[in-house]
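Box 3.1 A note on notation
Throughout this textbook, protein chains are presented in two layers. The first layer is the amino acid sequence; the second is a token string describing backbone geometry. Keep the layers aligned when reading.
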Amino acid sequence: MNSEIRNLEPKALWNKFADLNAVPRPSKKEERVIAFMKEFGESLGLNTEIDKVGNVLIRKPATPGMEGRKTVVMQSHLDMVHQKNADTNFDFDTQGIEMYVDGDWVRAKGTTLGADNGLGVATIMAILEAKDIQHPAIEALFTIDEETGMTGAMGLEGGWLQGDILLNLDTEEDDEIGVGCAGGIDVTAKRSYKEEPVSDGKAAYTISVTGLNGGHSGMDIHKGLGNANKIMNRLLFDGFENFGLQVNEIKGGSLRNAIPRESFATVVVDTIHAEAFEFEIAELSKTIKHELSVMEADLQIEVNTTNLPKNVIELGVQEGLLKALYAAHNGVYIMSASIPDLVETSNNIAKVTIGKGEITIECLTRSSVESSKMDLVNKLRATFELIGCEVTTSGDYPGWAPNMDSPVLKVLDELYQKLNGEKAHVAACHAGLECGILGQNYPDMDMISFGPTILGAHSPDERASISSAQKYWNFVLEILKEIPKK
């Protein structure tokens, strides 16, 4: 099916995307794609370097007549989010992405597509390879591990880049020019507990929450999408309050930066309450489905009998856990007062893993305001410490403060209007971009972010618009022609 992708226009872009998607590249396992990029740069006879953390830098001289223009850093990240549907048999460590065309969209078979940020990488590759594209001197920067910690950007040292302007190709709406982004921090709550043996007279059930859309925990957090961990906890809390339900294990969500689509639990109730429990959870499931029917039409909640487990969580710990998960903030916390319709601060309860005497709850908190970010972190910390959890933070990265006087913004703003007959939407976003981190070591670099339209990023519903890719490609080529003089 990837052959039909190679026939799409612009072929230079889609062919490089197909080449890239043949290489396994999950976050923190980028060895193969780093080697792929190194071989690519060297095959073109271009200066190609790899820094100590694995970022790749390929330098290409200016085309004739463009030597007097400012040097441009074109930047995208090599890694991709690895999410798949539960019924999809796929190994991200060994397999390339299987793509297909669906109308105006390129999709993947049951997995994330990798258009985030693979289309940006492919764009830069196509320009590096081209012999007929006019451009100034280019430094092509391919960073690693953007999706799970931004360790590539954090590890990139000052002095390696010489460029004056940075074009970050990681925005996902083709009418948007990005001038700022949120920072983020990982919040993890852990504690151990004693298991209690399951007593006689119990009935056991598996509960599954599936079919949710999921999505990007920054860009999609305001859309009212269902969070599988929150839905599961609502079911368990009701069962505990009304029937003394006891939890054996919970496994919900997979990645911090993805809104959780699925959660699974094994529970027990007294046999005498089994019939009433089944009726009550069925009714509550109907209620939840009705509440989310507009955004989550495919939500499935299933309850099935199963074999009795040997152990459950001790009662006191379980009660505190279910109450803490109910109280813990998920979703939008504060909207920006200065930028209309921008989420300022949010939290994603991304992953809940409970069983065999251990509780782990993983969140990603985002904000464009540092003080607001830490306020929400403290709220989460207080919530989980009240039930005896040890709460730690990691992976803290800064936001990117908008510069509305940016010279390169003026270039892009005017070019977009000239090409499309309307003004672009100049905005900050609630996702984490690497610009804020890179700006710490390169404070004088003029930065901007843009890209083609990609929907459903970080979920198996990820899809890239074919018509938008053509529009975006033309925009890139015109931008390179209009880079200011030194």
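The longest helix spans residues 274-291. The first strand starts at residue 47 and ends at 50.
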